[in-house]
Amino acid sequence: RRRVLEASQQLTEIINNETSAENPETSEDMELVDEEESSQHCLWVDKFTPRRYMELLSDDYTNRCLLKWLKLWDTVVFGKEKAVKKAKPSTEARQPFSQPKEQQNKWKTKVQLTEEILEAELDQHKRPKYKVALLCGPPGLGKTTLAHVIARHAGYNAVEMNASDDRSPEVFKTRIEAATQMRSVLGTHEKPNCLIIDEIDGAPTASINVLLNIIHRKDVEGEAGAGTARRRRREGGLLLRPIICICNDQ
């Protein structure tokens, strides 16, 4: 068995060396492959999991929508200004003959409504209108993989927690605030956190209410009074990081 293992390792090194010599531009990809094959007991689901946006096999429209929503946080997280799109002249020409807003929304497709939500104006704190994205679908669809790949692609450090494990609302609140309000410490490469809450459909009602309270916190800067300031410090600050929730049962 030892001789077979040594022979297989030598063959693997020879194949890798020949491939890197033929394709020098793919040396970085080969390093990733070497890291994956270094573990002897590596499951196929881990070995072939997507690590880049272009490797995702999930629905392309869902991938683009989630990435577009995550990029809406760039203003408040990275300080980047949102690009302003110019209105199409054809839309302006048809404006006087347009139907009432309720009737317009009635005949719009799901794709058009989703695009409008993603292109909505930011709030007064430069945050998107919807603070949480919800990915739902049967097990094995690639929801968690999609969340991690998109978060890394957008420049975040993906922090995952399982809502079914943390049954206590106090622990749930502490973990959410730690992930969304504290900076990740990764040596010289510090990235803002993107919180991924898995199995949110298994969380108790009290935990869901805690999450909603964190999302709906408002800035009381204009309100005077020491009591208000103390209450705000006790409750915590504004939500300034994106949260992606994952569930099987919507």
TrEMBL record:
Belongs to the activator 1 small subunits family. CTF18 subfamily. GO terms for molecular function: ATP binding; ATP hydrolysis activity; DNA binding. Keywords: ATP-binding, Cell cycle, DNA replication, DNA-binding, Nucleotide-binding, Nucleus. It comes from Brachypteracias leptosomus. GO terms for cellular component: nucleus. Residues 92-102 have a biased composition (Polar residues). GO terms for biological process: DNA replication. It is found in: Nucleus. This is CTF18 protein. Residues 129-240 form the AAA+ ATPase domain. Residues 87-106 are annotated as: Disordered.
